[in-house]
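User: I've been going back and forth on whether these two constructs are worth ordering. Before I decide, could you fold them both?

Assistant: Sure. I'll take them in the order you sent them. The first construct and its structure tokens:
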Amino acid sequence: MATANLTLIEALRRTVRNLNSGKPYMWGHMGACNCGNLAQELTQLTKADIHAYALQGRGDWREQIEEYCPTSGLPMDLLIADLLQHGLTTTDLQHLERLSDPKVKNQIPLERRNQMRHNVREDVILYLQTWANVLEEELLAAMPLPDFERTPEGSLAVSLY
């Protein structure tokens, strides 16, 4: 799974806000689909730019990710490389396009999880919200917490080391 980091978590949350606010969503459009909407937030490219890059390659996101070559110089490969620099993996992107990461899906209530469709805006929003929450929990779990000690007077003191 992606490396938990604030930039990625915030991009996921902005993508959710945008989709909730009516930002264009079309699963068959490389710049306005699941990956396309997140890519817009992480790269500041437009949906038209992303779609144009994708048309220079072959296939949908899954196929382009499978053929990803970091040294090709192709625009879509440069875009994917940029997304990977934000902590994502190619597997994350493939899962996002199909809403299929087991770690994310297991956090979604069973009755909703079994009815999710990869090309339905509301399901994408739920998946992105859940994914952001999972990453946030991982990030918080990795942060060192201060040790608390009682002083001789009985109050708490914080020790950072």
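The second construct, handled the same way:
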Amino acid sequence: MNVTVLVCEQLSMFELACATELFALPRPEFNQWYRTKIVALKGDQFSGLCDTTFTCPVVNTLPATDLLVVPSFPVHITKVDTHIANEVLAHYRRGGRIISFCSGAFLLGALGILDNREAITHWRYASEFKQRFPAVSYCEDSLYVYDGQIGCSAGSAAAIDLGIEIIRQDFGYEYANAVARRLVLPAHRDGGQSQYIQKPLARPNNTLAKCIDWALTQLSPQLTVNQMAQKANMTRRTFDRHFIKQFNITAHQWLCERKLDVARQLLETTTLSIEQIALRAGFDNAITLRHNFRKYLSVSPTHYRQTFRKLPDTVMQSNTVIQKPGCAL
């Protein structure tokens, strides 16, 4: 799978580094990975911070690529260079995927690629973005938006959230989580709508940590929050209070999420029936599994499997994913 990172007009070092770390860093531990090039269509040298200079190959035509990454674009430029516009639009019209980080959304907006789509950019530029591109549906407070072809992330570090989502859809949750661990980051920041990436847990206080470690080995229809409270040597009321303070969700919701983590993994990697998966994940039956999938993920287990199960020589696609901070699952 080929990735092209396009440096435009001026250099934003952090966003370019995010693209490089996500898609260009060699990962020999994986059987499949991206082949990435960093190119410019206009000029081969770009000034960085602290009197540094970045040099990259300049090309006349974008190389054949599956994914085009625009790390940044100058917000003050309202008329895009004709050559850059033609090359990016040609890639888009061929059905190629494009994602932008931070101010890179201004290039996509100026080319009309975001018209009638949902998009996001850094909060500092939100007012100007909405004023200049009224045909775009701006997603307030989102970390990123991705509909399977076009994606945008908010400022700076949200580029990593979007990049991990792309990896998740291209290669599956194991690859995405491995990349996140290597970055020493959670594979999915708390909050948002459909939570499609397995979410590592923050480490709580020692008593809760031991209880949680125990609960993860006991997932079954018989496991209850009352049992977890007993294991933590707390009353149910005290346990609930400490749990909500630590995780900002109830213990019951946490337990459902962990069971759903197991179910999603089995849906992606096995051919087990929905009933078998429900029992292995710790639900009473397939009906309970379907109910919780609808409640927390807004999709059915069958639809999730059709969307995310990795098949040979195919690339997984997704419905629009909008990731927002501060919203419980």
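Notes on the second construct follow. Confidence is low (pLDDT under 50) at residues 190-204, 311-319, 324-329. The CA atoms of residues 219 and 282 lie 5 Å apart.
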